[in-house]
């Protein structure tokens, strides 16, 4: 037997949850071709994995790296964590399928989250969008079909529910997109145009996803709740599952500072829906606060008409005054607990890492007024993140909940990485080693179980064929890590730090990370889900 690569002496944790076994793994071309005693085999190259776990590469079910991967295919902050496949387009915030003019409009609108990828890309279909990544990125890329592009294609950035002919048109686009390999249907109902929808529209769209056996990934609704079943939230998501038959996947579902320790309470509606026969999975990231863009705090009417119309509203003194009054009427705590993560302009870049209150003080104005000014000056290319709890005990209680949720077989991990800006949320650099290393060790979970949650679970849920397991005939997407050493180094004050304890990462049989350095090999494929 001869192989392109043999990984020797490692503990093979195969992704199924079965106990690890000492074995060698042989790789030929893009695939795993043997597992066992390969001491007599010829190998062009060998890696000694003594003292290390050899696991499937990690699959990130929630990555806002749509734009970042197009600007820098190396994507070190992902592959250095052991991530071999990123699923882009969560929350339905993504670029395809969009014709050129709408791509340019939505690119600017989403730039606070996704950065600014090149203008001259063909995003007119899922197929052409996957081609933009294929062999141009180090990790594999799978794509959700986004509710955002589906609505934009049907009615533009307008506040009307999809019904009749426009609904039929949306349905046809969905069918084409699933046939071209979209791995699920995603929406985020704090975001636009997604939040212009009502529950009935989502049931109709999810019936199409159900016909193609694709999961519906949802960031639950907190905007326009008057048009939602049960006032939005998780109950709306589950009711859409009941009525459409779609497989429901709930994004970033965990406790936070306000309800730490209440795991049973947050799982109660999930268990009720499962008893009704709804197929539900969930995901989380292991940090107590989130990150996003300021647009998700703006009222529904602000977004109508798209980027230029919304920017004109910010430039008009009367409309801006109205906006500020609305922002002030919301829970002020929320806006006061943010800092800027990225700012596009050189003039304002020093705000990165500064709290909103400090920036407002520097400008001699209120926080609400400051947000409106900065958004206009940056044309929405600005992002924010939350401040973690002051109490380390509370923070650790949320982390304990994270691990007890991951103890459930229906959970997986989505980093919710937003890889733009100079002082990002640490989740984009540390999520996977934090779960597989720090938190697994602290709370005493078996490595086999934690690895299963980040490999086989997502591969099966999202139709990523031949991935997510160390198995003969499967793709050689492999992470080699030291189980005692693997750890995140990214923190809120120094977020953009690579983890330790992950010396080698293979994507489709090629080393994209070797001896803890990126190799520059763009081995990733645009994955067409089955
Ligand atoms: Zn997200």
The CATH first-level class of the largest domain comes to: Alpha Beta
Kindly report how far apart the N and C termini lie.
Answer: 32 Å
* Bound ions, cofactors and other small molecules, one mention each: zinc ion
Instruction: Indicate the CATH architecture of the largest domain.
Output: Alpha-Beta Barrel
Task: Tell me the structural class.
Answer: alpha/beta
Our estimate of the beta-strand percent is 15-25%
Chain-wise SSE layout:
Elements: E1 2-3, E2 5-12, E3 21-28, E4 31-36, E5 42-43, E6 46-48, E7 53-56, E8 58-63, H1 68-71, H2 76-79, E9 83-88, H3 100-109, H4 111-114, H5 126-133, E10 140-143, E11 145-146, H6 147-155, H7 164-179, E12 184-188, H8 199-211, E13 215-219, H9 233-244, E14 247-250, H10 263-275, E15 280-284, E16 291-292, H11 307-315, H12 317-329, H13 332-336, E17 338-343, H14 356-363, H15 367-378, E18 382-386, H16 392-406, E19 411-413, H17 427-443, H18 447-453, H19 456-461, E20 478-481, E21 504-507, E22 510-514, E23 517-518
Parallel strand pairs: 1-5, 2-6, 2-7, 8-9, 9-10, 11-12, 12-13, 13-14, 14-15, 15-19
Antiparallel strand pairs: 2-3, 3-4, 7-20, 16-18, 17-18, 20-21, 21-22, 22-23
The structure holds zinc ion (ZN).
Residues 62, 64, 90-91, 416 line the site of zinc ion.
């Amino acid at each position: 037997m001869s192989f392109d690569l043999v990984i020797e002496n490692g503990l093979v944790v195969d992704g199924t949850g079965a106990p690890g076994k000492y074995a060698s793994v042989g790789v030929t071309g893009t695939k795993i071709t043997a597992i066992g005693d390969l001491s007599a085999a010829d190998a062009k190259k060998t890696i000694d994995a003594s003292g290390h776990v050899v696991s499937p590469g990690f699959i990130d079910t929630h990555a806002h790296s749509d734009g970042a991967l197009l600007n820098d295919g190396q994507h070190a902050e992902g592959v250095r964590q052991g991530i071999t496949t990123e699923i882009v387009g969560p929350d339905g915030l993504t670029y395809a399928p969009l014709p050129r003019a709408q791509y340019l409009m939505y690119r600017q609108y989403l730039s606070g989250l996704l950065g600014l990828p090149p203008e001259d890309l063909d995003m007119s279909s899922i197929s052409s969008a996957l081609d933009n990544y294929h062999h141009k990125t180090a990790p594999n890329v799978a794509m959700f079909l986004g509710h955002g592009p589906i609505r934009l294609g049907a009615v533009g950035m307008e506040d009307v529910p999809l019904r009749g002919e426009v609904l039929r048109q949306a349905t046809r686009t969905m069918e084409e997109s699933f046939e071209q390999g979209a791995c699920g249907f995603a929406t985020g109902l704090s975001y636009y145009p997604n939040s212009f929808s009502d529950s009935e529209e989502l049931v109709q769209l999810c019936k199409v996803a159900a016909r193609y056996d694709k999961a519906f990934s949802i960031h639950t609704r907190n905007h326009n709740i008057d048009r939602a079943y049960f006032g939005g939230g998780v109950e709306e998501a589950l009711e859409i599952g009941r009525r459409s038959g779609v497989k429901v996947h709930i994004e970033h579902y965990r406790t936070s500072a306000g309800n730490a320790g209440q795991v049973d309470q947050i799982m109660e509606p999930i268990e009720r829906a499962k008893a009704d026969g709804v197929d539900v999975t969930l995901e989380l990231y292991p940090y107590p606060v989130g990150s996003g863009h300021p647009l998700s705090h703006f009222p529904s009417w602000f977004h109508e008409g798209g980027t230029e119309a919304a920017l004109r509203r910010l430039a008009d003194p009367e409309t801006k005054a109205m906006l500020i009054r609305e922002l002030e009427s919301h829970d002020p705590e929320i806006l006061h607990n943010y800092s800027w993560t990225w700012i596009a302009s050189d003039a304002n870049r020093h705000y990165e890492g500064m709290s909103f209150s400090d920036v407002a003080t520097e400008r001699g104005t209120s926080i609400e007024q400051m947000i409106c000014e900065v958004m206009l000056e940056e044309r929405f290319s600005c992002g924010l993140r939350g401040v973690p709890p002051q109490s380390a005990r509370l923070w650790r209680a949320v982390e304990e909940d994270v691990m007890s949720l991951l103890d459930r077989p229906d959970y997986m991990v989505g980093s919710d990485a937003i890889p733009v800006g100079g002082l990002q949320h640490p989740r984009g650099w540390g999520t996977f080693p934090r779960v597989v290393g720090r938190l697994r060790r602290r709370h005493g979970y078996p490595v086999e179980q934690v690895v299963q949650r980040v490999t086989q679970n997502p591969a099966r849920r999202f139709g990523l064929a031949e991935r997510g397991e160390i198995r003969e005939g499967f793709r050689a997407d492999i992470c080699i890590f030291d189980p005692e050493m693997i750890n995140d180094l990214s923190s809120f004050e120094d977020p953009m730090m690579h983890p330790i304890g992950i010396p080698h990462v293979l994507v489709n049989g090629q080393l994209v990370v070797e001896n803890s350095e990126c190799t520059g090999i763009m081995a990733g494929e645009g994955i067409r889900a089955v």
